[in-house]
Automatic annotation (TrEMBL):
Residues 89-109 form the C2H2-type domain. Residues 32-72 are annotated as: Disordered. The lineage of its organism: Bacteria, Pseudomonadati, Pseudomonadota, Alphaproteobacteria, Rhodospirillales. This is C2H2-type domain-containing protein. PROSITE patterns: ZINC_FINGER_C2H2_1 (PS00028). Pfam families: DDE_Tnp_IS66. NCBIfam families: transpos_IS66. It comes from the Bacteria. Residues 54-67 have a biased composition (Basic residues).
Length: 447
């Protein structure tokens, strides 16, 4: 702000300037009195919250265990069994026959064998055809094509360690050398992961087809940092769409609705679960807003001094979520009555006065989104929150914080493909490594 020349101002202009500054000071003082945004009352991530010092916990006296202790469960099918028999009595030296002894104790000894890569050298022979004099060469095996020397098991391990556990290229190169005796450079790791997008594209097509058949879909988005030599550093957005059997990640430069339109096409699910972002609206017949986001906004209004409307709204939403947990034991008619009761209680709350500006804003937001609060009460397949989508995005957020983003566009695409495969495999009972391994060889990842 440039400082005006006060000597050139008229008395009326000085008065106007003083009044404007007083209004500005009053606005800043009012802002100082507002509560701070925290992860408990806003959408800030937990990493940006202030961690309070915990008081020291008093030490409890150690309880004596009643009964025998619990040890590791024995393996169902051990690879080897070693039977140890006594040869002689340790007290008098008398020989003890082995056929009369009975089992007294059994335990498992677990160890890993030396791990080293299995190297298969493929030699292709050929000659000139004796008839046409053209060159003839043998065809390589389909599972061992020429080009990259690394097989799908190595690529699956690299993808799992990098995209699931956020192990960088440098550490990953040293890890493969020290644990498995496999010398692989950082460039070779990048090339192997880049080539993985071809078989993973087939898995993505199957995931998209499953999403286009889903009746309930949850959606969310988070930031993705892209750094390229041509465009520099810019922010993109990682979108995730979650159904009961499929998870799809897409990294796109826009936060608009183009990604959802491209994925779903003409499909229109029965219900859409998301936050209150504008690009998330209008994709299904019904909508369920994430009540966890609403409860955080309600908590902010309470922290700002709203003592009437916000606490009552919090009690209503918590009661509705508790009813939602009991849906498997309730009839459809009972759920319809509960939803009608929730709507009547909300009608009563909307007539209550507000005491603060934060409470008035919460009242306006409630009137705007009230039709999407209680969809889950009468639709058993709809969750009251969007936690499934947020949990699907959490590993990508950790990956972004550890690696500081992507250095290429193809790296972002491969990350989205692998996260889609891992998320879908987990919904279908597969571990991350199993899902990646099956997708790389073209096997289905659906139950």
């Amino acid at each position: 702000m440039t400082r005006p020349d006060l000597f050139r101002l008229s008395p009326e202009e000085k008065d106007a300037l003083i009044l404007a500054l007083l209004e500005r000071v009053a606005a800043l003082e009012a802002k100082l009195n507002q509560p701070a945004k925290t992860p408990n009352n806003s959408s800030l991530p937990p990493s940006r919250g202030q961690k309070a010092n915990r008081p020291p916990r008093p030490k409890k006296p150690r309880r004596k265990r009643k009964g025998p202790g619990v040890t590791r469960e024995l393996a169902a099918d051990p690879d080897h069994v070693v039977d140890c028999h006594a040869h002689a009595c340790a007290h008098c030296g008398t020989a003890v026959p082995a056929d009369t002894q009975r089992l007294h104790h059994a335990y498992d000894h677990i160890d890993l064998p030396p791990i080293r890569p299995v190297i298969t050298r493929v030699r292709l022979f050929g000659q000139r055809c004796p008839a046409c004099r053209r060159r003839v060469r043998a065809t390589p095996p389909e599972t061992m094509p020429p080009g990259s020397p690394f097989g799908p098991s190595i690529v699956a391990m690299l993808a799992n360690l990098h995209h699931q556990h956020a192990v960088g290229y440098d550490r990953l190169s040293r890890l493969m050398t020290e644990l498995f005796g496999l010398r692989i450079s950082e460039g070779a790791i990048a090339n192997a992961l880049r080539r993985a997008n071809r078989p993973l594209d087939q898995a993505e097509v199957a995931i998209v087809e499953r999403l286009r058949q889903a009746t309930v879909i949850g959606c969310d988005e988070t930031g993705a940092r892209l750094t390229t030599a041509d465009q520099g550093t810019r922010m993109g957005w990682e979108w995730v769409l979650v159904s009961d059997t499929a998870v799809l990640h897409r990294i796109h430069p826009s936060r608009g609705r183009e990604v959802i339109t491209e994925v779903l096409g003409e499909h229109r699910p029965r219900c859409w679960v998301s936050d209150r972002w504008g690009a998330q609206q209008g994709h299904a017949a019904t909508h369920q807003v994430c009540l966890a986001h609403v409860l955080r906004d309600v908590q902010y209004a309470i922290d700002a001094g709203e003592a009437c409307f916000a606490p009552a709204l919090r009690r209503l939403l918590c009661w509705a979520i508790a009813v939602g947990r009991r849906r498997p034991d309730l009839k459809d008619s009972t759920l319809a009555q509960y939803r009608a009761k929730a709507e009547r209680r909300l009608d009563h709350l909307l007539g209550m006065p507000t005491l603060t500006e934060a409470g008035a804003e919460m009242l306006r937001q409630t009137k705007r989104w009230r039709s999407q609060f209680f969809t889950f009460l009468t639709d058993r397949a709809v969750p009251p929150t969007n936690n499934a989508s947020e949990q699907a995005l959490r590993p990508s957020v950790i990956f972004r914080k550890v690696t500081n983003g992507f250095r290429s566009l193809w790296g972002a695409d491969v990350h989205a493909l692998i996260r889609s495969v891992i998320g879908t495999g987990r919904l279908n009972g597969l571990s991350a490594h199993q899902a990646i391994s099956r997708a790389l060889v073209g096997q289905p990842i659906f139950a």
